[in-house]
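Running low. Invent one:
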Amino acid sequence: MSFEFKDHTADTIVLAKGKDLQEAFEQAALGTYETMTDISLISPRLQKEVIIDSEDMKSLLFDWIDQLIFLFDTEYLIANKITIQQFTTGPEKFHLKAILEGEEFEIGRHTQKSEVKAMTYSFMEIGEDFVEFTLDL
């Protein structure tokens, strides 16, 4: 279980791996947050439940990461512990329910890395135990 960043000229490509796809989705969230700040400095001061329902697997990944970006942009929520409690991957239902543990991002207390503008479908790949996707910076 891990995540890593791959070279790209203007954006960031995140490759997240796990023992299964559910864990890869958890690692994808951590990779997204690590793009924004040093997640080792985040304290688990609050919890947020996130529920995503999508029409297919790629949409589930897109909607998941997009929701995390939205929560950062609107509530300044940054998490370093992600627990997916429900994970359904088809054939007719693509669903996840997760608990994010973290805190409100504060400039000056948290390091500021890259501003993530959006999740994209560009270079998206999904395997049995990994996901790869591009973040627009």
Observations:
- The CA atoms of residues 69 and 118 lie 7 Å apart.
- Residues 57-75 form the longest helix (19 residues).
